[in-house]
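Quick illustration for those who missed Monday's session on complexes.
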Amino acid sequence: MAVFSLKSKLAAVSIVGLGYVGLCTAATLASGGIRTIGIDIDEARVDQIRKGKAPLHEPQLDAMLKRSIRNKLLAASNDISSAADTDTTFLTVGTPSQQDGSIDLSYVKNATEDLGNVLREKRGYHLVVVKSTVVPGTTNGTVKRFLEQSSGKNAGSELGLCVNPEFLKEGTAINDALHPDKIVIGSNDKKSADHLIRLYKRFYGKELPPVIITGPEAAELVKYASNAFLATKISFINTIANIAQQIPGVDVGTIAKAIGLDPRIGGLFLKAGPGYGGSCFHKDIQALINYSQNNGYDPTLFRATEETNEQQANRVVGMAETLLGSLSNKRVAVLGLAFKKDTDDIREASSLRVISQLKKEGAHVIAYDPMAIPNTRKQLADQISYADNPRSALKGADCAIIMTEWDEIAKLKAKDFQAYMKTPNIVDARRVYDPEEFSQLSYAAIGVGLVNPRQGKPNSELS
Ligand code: UGA
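Prediction with uridine-5'-diphosphate-glucuronic acid bound:
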């Protein structure tokens, strides 16, 4: 494949911040023949990476790390001075949310300053690429200021500076990095942009995707616009789902399929559910709202996107209540904790919002997830119980709520619920089951306007 051309051995990049984005980017670039040094201040993390073991779950990543380390194309270090041996440094440190929704730039500032100190003595051109998600103006403001002060050089001739947002999805990050739909480069000067394009040309060869060259602020905004659009698309379909659920015989899946055929709408990202989670959508929309409000414009749409998402968890609990009556002292099995399948990540997961509401209503929660229990334990400790498999979670339960669309959960049959539960009340928040098959049980699904078999009522009365 052109992607793995050997010419690229001449290029050398460093990546500062070996979190999810940094590590996936490092492993991918190295696997494509680019000599890559991953840098992180966390020694334990660096040690683990050196052994070819990713400190996070991402398909293909471990194998890629091992191969690249063995081939001497990837090295990990906690010493940022090794960045001087490369000619391009990507900043991929985190930008966590603060109380007011704005992003915390302390990691970006520290990394930029440390890098600048290293570059002070370096001879020759060096390009700094901001890949961390930062609000418009950050690169040309804070980053540029910190970099110029610490390096004693001006961004322009000897020091390049540009923005290059990432669009990786957890679970498919490696594939996304190998086959991006676009590359966005925000730069003040042609030299920086050209340098980065050259690197990507080496890496992607004939498979280079469309490259959008723009100013830093526009590139920074592209990332937020992308996530805000995707999150809004989900809140949109969840809104339609909530309307559909009130109409017996209507399934939001049919509506999504039909509207998705219009190319202006598109069929992807129209799966109704319990609301979006993950480390980015909520954080990025909050940052965008905060940024915009500080500039004197209130983005009502994005506030509604977030509010709709928040309420969706209450709707899930409301559906359980309609099936069960009071939830007080009821045993509720929550199947799935991760914010989506094939990950152990529970950050901002809708399962956490649902569990918190269930606890408020006095329910006993027993949860099962094939991967996310260790992370959930760290956060919820013994506030809930944990099961080793779906069947033991269902045992004696008054209600089951499907929160993540894991294959092994989606494969469960109506008879499994019937066999193990005290009363088979099922809230299918991910719409993984066939309503027909489950019609003999007390079953309610997001966006499916059923006539409730147990109560003989249309779902309009379930809400
Ligand atoms: C998201 C974006 O999709 C990436 O493009 C972006 O790079 C990334 O955030 C980021 O900013 O780093 P990710 O958080 O991995 O990626 O997760 P998604 O696959 O987008 O799913 C987000 C949430 O939306 C999940 O909870 C998922 O279950 C939910 N979702 C997704 C739906 O409820 N319905 C859908 O149709 C699609």
